[in-house]
Amino acid sequence: MRLRDTHSHQVSQNRSSQAVLQQEARGSLIVLTHLRGRKERAINMPASLCGTWDIISNVNFEGYMIALGIGPHIRKIAVKLKLRKVVEQHGDQFVIKTLSTFRNYSVSFRVDQEFEEFTQGLDSKHVKSLVSWKENKLVCEQIGEKKNRGWTHWIEDDKLHLELYCEGQLCTQVFKKNVSE
Known about the structure:
Strand content: over 45%
Order of helices and strands: HEEEEHHEEEEEEEEE
CATH topology of the largest domain: Lipocalin
Largest sheet: 10 strands, antiparallel
Shape: globular
Number of helices: 3
CATH superfamily of the largest domain: Calycin beta-barrel core domain
Number of domains: 2
CATH architecture of the largest domain: Beta Barrel
Number of strands: 13
């Protein structure tokens, strides 16, 4: 069976469920999503965020935590942590893990699908989250008790950049790819 035949066969096999086809194109990833009873849609995504990333810069983390309502004892510990991000993608499902020696947090989502999120390990709030691609950035808007809350991930100069924002406070974090991966 030729590649094209295999590809067509896989699509027809998966039409009843959700099928995701990926194609490399000029440094970006194009994902074609087939949904039951709906037309095919293409999502143009930038270079992969996947991998293990270690923090190299963390600006205004304490201000961001104050805006979230995190107490002074936890903030004192958190600002000293060396964070690690693990970004995984399984088809159209993303998993982003934030790891440290103190607490870990994991969020799993599908792009452009609103979901309920409990930020246990962070500020322990219930929020409605929506993650979408805006140009080359993965952007999350969170609706809950705090106003103007969310985050943005993107790759620039082979580094993972993250902006965390809440009620006028902006924390910027930069991560380098873990070379032992």
